[in-house]
Specification:
Blueprint lengths: L3 E4 L6 E2 L2 E2 L3 H11 L3 E5 L6 H10 L9 E3 H12 L4 E5 L2 H9 L3 E2 L6 E4 L7 H12 L3 E4 L5 E4 L2 E4 L1 H12 L4 E2 L5 H11 L6 E5 L2 H11 L2 E5 L6 H4 L8 E3 L6 H6 L24
Parallel strand pairs: 1-4, 1-13, 4-5, 6-7, 6-8, 8-9, 9-12, 13-14, 14-15
Antiparallel strand pairs: 2-3, 10-11
Helix pairs in contact: 3-4, 5-6
The site of magnesium ion has 8 residues, from loops.
Length: 280
């Protein structure tokens, strides 16, 4: 049995800047055994390098190819829909960098898209500009619809809250690429070079991590170290494959896996291959 992991960050690896005890042991084992894994985050603020540095400061030493963010998913999606397009962006470095790397230019006059990410840079003038561009025909894209984000000082409005304001003002609905959208969930699987039944999604949020994994047919593991408490789980119409307290509880199953690196999966034989339509 081969098994690779897509691992949410906030509430799974750390909470409010504090490492969840034992998370470092889980990552050390994955690396020691060469088991494929990716950090999968709906936070578009940080670049891959920023994420690696944050993890480094927590005592978990990874490389940039272990990181996949909704900013990268969004930029790749837009590049596949409209190569060489342009966007007006409300967001930070992680999103701007991903768009540039995928051939996108920033445009405040007549962009193809208005793209919204996480961040603290929003001003009313930016919201006004975004609205006017949407009304002129730019398509509204959300990196994710998370309504709020935990910080060291409590909650702050998330990308979904900013998007909701622009949807209300414009009358247009945004398209969101982040978890649970299958576009991001599938890109992550391809990055891991694994088949659908070889992927386990680990997360603390039912509406994104678990729903996203479930929709793709992945095995899902809910951890109770973040936003979902055991007594609220039964309220959901869908359930994870497994629920555990923290990542540490998954160490025994990783110990059972064969050592990597594994033979690369032939993508041509991928039964759920889906071509994204490219518009000109
Ligand atoms: Mg989380």
């Amino acid at each position: 049995m081969r098994r690779g992991y897509l691992i949410d960050m906030d509430g799974v690896i750390y909470r409010g800047g504090e490492l969840i005890p034992g998370a470092e042991k889980f990552f050390a084992l994955l690396q020691e055994r060469d088991i494929p894994f990716l950090l999968l985050t709906n936070n578009s603020q940080r670049t891959r390098r920023d994420v690696v540095l944050k993890m480094d400061n927590l005592g978990i030493h990874l490389t940039e190819d272990h990181v996949f963010t909704c900013a990268i998913a969004t930029a790749r999606f837009l590049a596949s829909q409209k190569p060489g397009g342009s966007a007006y962006v409300i967001g930070e470095g992680g999103l701007l960098n991903a768009l540039h790397q995928n051939g996108y230019a920033i445009n405040e006059t007549n962009p193809d898209y208005v793209v919204i990410g996480e961040g603290r840079t929003l001003t009313f003038e930016m919201a006004e500009k975004a609205l006017q561009l949407i009304l002129k025909g730019a398509k509204l894209i959300a990196t994710n619809m998370d309504p709020n984000c935990p910080t060291d000082k409590g909650m702050r409005p998330g990308c979904g809250a900013i998007v909701a304001m622009l949807e209300a003002a414009s009358g247009y609905k945004a398209f969101s690429v982040g978890k649970p959208n299958p576009i991001m969930m599938r890109m992550a699987r391809k990055q891991l070079n694994l088949r659908t039944n070889e992927v386990t999604m680990i997360g603390d949020t039912m509406e994104t991590d678990i729903l996203g994994g479930l929709q793709m047919g992945y095995r899902t593991v809910l951890v109770f170290s973040g936003s979902t408490l055991p007594d609220t789980l039964s309220r959901y119409p869908y359930q994870p494959t497994l629920a555990v307290n923290t990542l540490v509880d998954l160490i025994p199953e990783v110990e059972q896996l064969p050592d990597g690196p594994w033979e690369i999966f032939e993508e041509e034989n991928d039964p759920d291959e889906m071509q994204l339509v490219t518009t000109v």
